[in-house]
# Entry
Amino acid sequence: MTGFTLPIQVVTAGGLSAWLTEDHSVPVVSLTWSWTGGAALDPVGQEGAAALAMGLLTSGAGDLSETAFAEALRDNAISLTFSASRDEADGGFRCLADALPEAVRLARLAMTAPRLDANPFDRARARALASLRAAQETPRGRAGRAFWPAAFPTHPAARPTGGTAESLPAMTTDMLRAALARQLRQGGLLIAAAGAITPAALAELMPVLFATLPAEAPPAVPPLPAMVDFGTSVVPIAAPQSLAIFAQTGLSVADPDWEAAQVVLRVLGGGGFSSRLMDSVRTQRGLTYGISTGFDTLFGQGIVIGTVATENARMAETLGLVREEWARMAQTGPTAEELADAVAFLTGNAPLQFTDTRRIAGNLLALRRNNRPLDWLAQRPARLAALTQPGTAAVAARLLRPAALSVMVAGEPIGL
# Structure
């Protein structure tokens, strides 16, 4: 089977390497890069430091105030962003090819000479606190806040990316600068680019953008352990509906059964109205507007995780159906028809993930994070087509463990 592929080139310069998909049909360039770490590098008591610090990198740098920096981006039609998630930090820009030198200048200035002025810092902290308070007022926010410490109590994954009610008011610019110093390094840097840029131009650009960062890598983060089976836990909050997060340990992204497991999870809960969970919980019984499950990938590990919301009186029934479908899939796997449908979707949908330079660069970076070979995309349809019903059923039995399915519910559920 012929698969969707991209002409990926490997570009090296100054000890750095990047994956590039070159395309001059539109004069736009996207460059993205990332490091492992993110919120996992926040010291205890300084939760939210990485997210705040990375978010403030575009709020003034060098001799450019916040307003002057924003005007320089606007005047050159440059989109420049930085962020930190639970297990990584990243940056990137998109610009017209003619504005590439200015985009590189501003991105480098942001990483090497951030101002972290008082006014943008105070506003960013106030937004983070407001977001934290808003999340505490909803079942979704409460459940999400409680899930990670219950699932990984001894690992940095338990730390809230956006900070806590205690850490945010105590945050200082010195803490933010320390967070940036831990993260912004040459070592461990992954880079991807797409659009109207040649390999030679990218090779010239990389040392200019990154060479002044410290050479060493960010501090190492411990591998993600198996998820704790915490059973069913309820976080009380007054609301007419409850929201449940249900999850279990999954597979490493390097596991040879990764793609077969993706097929299993699509049939179980990732295929919209065609999935078994949606059919059982919504279509047949009308218990919810939506239910889904899939892999949440962090620290190189895929966690099987899903969510569902329903009225308090019917949450126990809903979770009972989830467990039934979990067990049924573990026992029999997808049917031959379900397998064929899932493979057809995953094969045909692939090109839609690469429709512009930003998405192409982002997906190239994801491939690099997961240590995929250059021909991974081209070979993927053949790997999917080779899946068999017995083989996929064996993966379902290996992957899904109904007895280990843990559930965090926020609301006032009856019967739990």
